[in-house]
Amino acid sequence: MKRTEYHVVPNSGRWKVEQGGREVGTYDTKQVAVEAGRKAARTSEPSQLVVHTADGRIETEYTYQGDPYPPAG
Fold first, then answer.
1. pLDDT digits (tens, 9 = 90+) for 47-59
2. pTM beyond cutoff 0.70
3. Helix (H) or strand (E) holding 7
4. Distance between CA atoms of 46 and 41, rounded to whole angstroms?
5. Going by DSSP bridges, is the β-strand pair 22-27/4-11 parallel, antiparallel, or unpaired?
């Protein structure tokens, strides 16, 4: 089953949550953006929230429902 992916990414001194190239929301702080991303991901299970650092690298990932652990292969 395919998961819906949400990303928390830096955006000109602010933070935004996006899904599939579409902006879900823009927030003043990373913490508020992560909270909004978690809420959005939980309403779209199975889903994944990918949180990025200020320089765009992946910091952490959260999976909601259907985490394939251990991964196949």
1. 999 999 999 999 9
2. yes
3. strand 4-11
4. 8
5. unpaired
